[in-house]
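Good morning,

Attaching, inline, the backbone tokens for the sequence recovery test we're adding to the shared suite. The designed sequence is right after.
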């Protein structure tokens, strides 16, 4: 839409015309959803589809509340398109949601990790974690993950925490599929070594108590 058409549609929404409101929602629903999801991904904040939907709907509420006070702020000055203005509004609203939940709010909400592929690490077959409590397992793996490269940690977040499939990750991470599988292989091997190293360190402390 051109700015003239955008402003005409906004004016009709502000006048309470239901058909214009429906048209506005159809026109910009996809863009808002995309921007919200992209903000989660760029900030590497774990999410579920419901998180995206909640913020997506809340943005529309924000735009239309108080007689469309937020929509009326768009003036289209200096060649700024409505889509560009809306993008800033969506990003700021999403970031504000992150702040309200606290720095680890969404991470804590989706803390349960999807370790279905971690079977490749062979931790269970080595009976390494069989005597550990669930929280201790998580803490151990998270500590090991913190020592990986940024790209490996990003892979961990997307694939294991957010359960994004290997077929979708090449586009998200902007790497070829073969490179992604290499990252996964290196990730599993390094994670296995890191976890074992942590466990060996803990055992050595138990075996060698401090002398007083």
């Amino acid at each position: 839409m051109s700015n003239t058409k955008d402003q005409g549609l906004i004016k009709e929404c502000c006048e309470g015309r239901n058909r214009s409101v429906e048209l506005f929602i159809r026109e910009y629903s996809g863009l808002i959803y995309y921007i919200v999801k992209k903000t989660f991904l760029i900030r590497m904040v774990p999410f579920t589809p419901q998180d995206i939907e909640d913020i997506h709907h809340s943005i529309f509420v924000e735009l239309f509340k108080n007689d469309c006070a937020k929509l009326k702020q768009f003036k289209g000055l200096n060649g700024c398109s409505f889509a560009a203005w809306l993008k800033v509004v969506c990003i700021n609203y999403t970031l504000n949601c992150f702040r309200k939940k606290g720095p680890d709010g969404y991470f804590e909400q989706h803390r349960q990790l999807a370790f279905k592929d971690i079977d490749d690490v062979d931790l269970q077959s080595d009976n390494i974690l069989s005597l550990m409590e669930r929280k201790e397992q998580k803490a151990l793996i998270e500590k090991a993950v913190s020592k990986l490269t940024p790209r490996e940690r990003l892979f961990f977040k997307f694939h294991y925490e957010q359960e994004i499939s290997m077929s979708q990750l090449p586009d998200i991470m902007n790497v070829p599929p073969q490179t992604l599988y290499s990252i996964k292989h290196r990730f599993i091997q390094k994670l296995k070594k890191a976890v074992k190293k942590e466990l060996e360190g803990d055992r050595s402390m138990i075996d060698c108590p401090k002398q007083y």
